[in-house]
Write a structure and sequence with these properties.
Layout (H helix, E strand, L loop, with lengths): L1 E15 L5 H9 L3 E15 L3 E5 L6 H8 L7 E6 L9 H6 E5 L11 H11 L4 H15 L14 H13 L5 E5 L7 H18 L2 E5 L3 H7 L2 E6 L2 E7 H5 L5 E8 L5 H5 L3 E6 L2 E7 L3 H8 L4 E8 L2 H10 L8
Parallel strand pairs: 3-7, 3-8, 5-6, 6-7
Antiparallel strand pairs: 1-2, 1-4, 8-9, 10-12, 10-13, 11-12
Helix pairs in contact: 4-6
Bound molecules: adenosine-5'-triphosphate and magnesium ion (MG).
């Protein structure tokens, strides 16, 4: 069954053109000029019930705008979309009860109240029966291990703890489709794992259909078989993640700051040099060769080392560069 059907969805924002200077500001009070920003352009895709799809794209690619239209927060400029048979922006009550939009960068909980109070409020808003409410809440509180924090005012929770509460609030009414916009942004690894596990559980146990955006490759690799890559508002790729990121799954980046120059050949003997800016070097190294690489770095004039996952932007850049563009409409 198709859960989400998007056809030619387009969103242009009208933004005022701001000329520099005071005179221009005064003039703009009388005649304001606008330009159109093409945030999402003719996007089409279908998602089956029970899928988890990753929406990937660089900053400003149009991901959040897309999710806002799918969840009914924004009207599109043109195009159509059906989520579980509803047109999102009509905001029918049954539609609102069937979906959730969870944004890592936005707070939806009452700041001065404990999360437990916000959950109760959601129970009223969504008209959740007592039994379902307690069962769902207990289950989620257990998986995310936040029982002792339920009575702490939200403003006193850490970022990771607050995000777990946001996620519980979003899933409490047992939505069938959930839009997760950067649910792990800024979180430490332990919280990222916990949230990832939770999302996987909700998908496998409850068959929740999920669209996920994240700037962390690990989130996407752990959760999504299929990805839709967007670039400047248009769809660049729609298909298996393995097709675009297979060879990235087992490598990490080692970024080093050098005290003085080191020959390229020496660096190349440690790992593939994928970035070099005078004394700043980025090496790509297979995960299982990291210890040896670190050991080799010991003999170089290194002042700082940082190991990280491959950023999603590299996957996107390469998809663009290699012309791996394949769009199944
Ligand atoms: N309310 C708005 N008014 C005008 N322009 C907007 C508005 N919201 C977003 N935009 C513009 O639309 C484009 C897409 O923004 P969007 O937030 O959807 O990107 P994104 O893919 O979610 O990026 P990020 O990864 O940084 O979250 C950007 O150029 C942005 O500046
Ligand atoms: Mg965004």
């Amino acid at each position: 069954m198709t859960a989400i059907d998007v056809r030619n969805l387009t969103k242009h924002y009208k933004v005022p053109i701001k000329q520099p200077g005071l005179l221009a500001s005064v003039k703009s009070l009388f005649s304001q000029e606008y330009e159109e920003k093409h945030a999402v352009e003719q996007m089409s895709f279908q998602i089956e019930a029970g899928e988890i799809v990753g929406l990937l794209g660089s900053n400003g690619a149009g991901k959040t705008t897309m999710m806002k239209m799918l969840s009914g927060i924004l009207h599109p400029t043109s195009g159509t979309c059906s989520v579980l048979g509803y047109t999102p922006w009509e905001r029918k009550q049954e539609f609102q009860k069937s979906i959730a939009m969870i944004m890592g960068q936005k707070n939806s909980l009452w700041w001065d109240l404990p999360a437990a109070d916000s959950f109760l409020l959601n129970k009223e808003i969504y008209d959740i029966p007592d039994k379902d409410y307690h069962e769902t809440l207990n289950h989620m509180v257990e998986i995310l291990d936040v029982k002792r924090l339920l009575t702490t005012p939200v403003r006193n929770l850490s970022l990771g703890e607050r995000m777990k509460m946001e996620i519980i609030a979003g899933f409490l009414h047992q939505p069938k489709v959930v839009f997760l916009d950067e649910p792990t942004i800024g979180l430490d690894l332990t919280s990222q794992y916990a949230i990832r596990d939770f999302i996987r559980t909700m998908n496998s146990q409850r068959k929740v259909t999920i669209i996920l955006t994240s700037h962390y490759m690990a989130d996407i690799q752990e959760l999504c078989k299929r990805v839709i890559i967007v670039n400047k508002g248009t769809k660049l790729y729609d298909g298996q993640l393995s097709h675009v990121a297979e060879d990235f799954s087992d490598v990490k980046l080692i970024s080093i700051d050098l005290e003085r120059d080191v020959e390229d050949a020496v660096l190349a003997s440690i790992g593939e040099v994928v970035g070099r800016d005078v004394l700043k070097v980025t090496l790509q190294v297979p995960r299982n060769e990291i210890p040896q690489a670190i050991a080799k770095l010991g003999s170089l004039p290194v002042v700082d080392v940082n190991i990280s996952e491959i950023p999603i932007d590299r996957v996107i850049e390469r998809t663009l560069a290699e012309g791996k563009v394949r769009v199944n409409q």
